[in-house]
Amino acid sequence: MNLLLASFESALGQTMRYMSLLAYAVAFILVISAGWAWRSGRPDEAKATLLGAAVIALAGVIASALFSAGGLPTVNIGR
After folding, report:
1. Segments making up each domain of the chain, as ranges
2. Fewest CB atoms within 10 A around its CB: which of 6, 23, 35, 49?
3. pLDDT, tens digit, for every residue of 14-27?
4. What is the DSSP track for 20-67?
5. What distance in Å separates the CA atoms of residue 63 and residue 55, rounded to the nearest whole number?
């Protein structure tokens, strides 16, 4: 049973790692979009887009911190 649980945690960690890589790609695209909005003369939209990019890029860290603060178990997304 422990082997099955360890295998599940490993698979879940890998899946979360790939999802965080996808989130970084989306955040990168949002940063480019914010630069385009700034250049087009829409600074408010650019600021909101940069804030959204930061939240998306740090979503894994934020969720891990909240789970740790609540005393819940977390899955390691690093190597």
Report:
1. 21-74
2. 6
3. 888 888 889 999 99
4. HHHHHHHHHHHHHHHHHHHHTT-HHHHHHHHHHHHHHHTHHHHHHHHH
5. 11
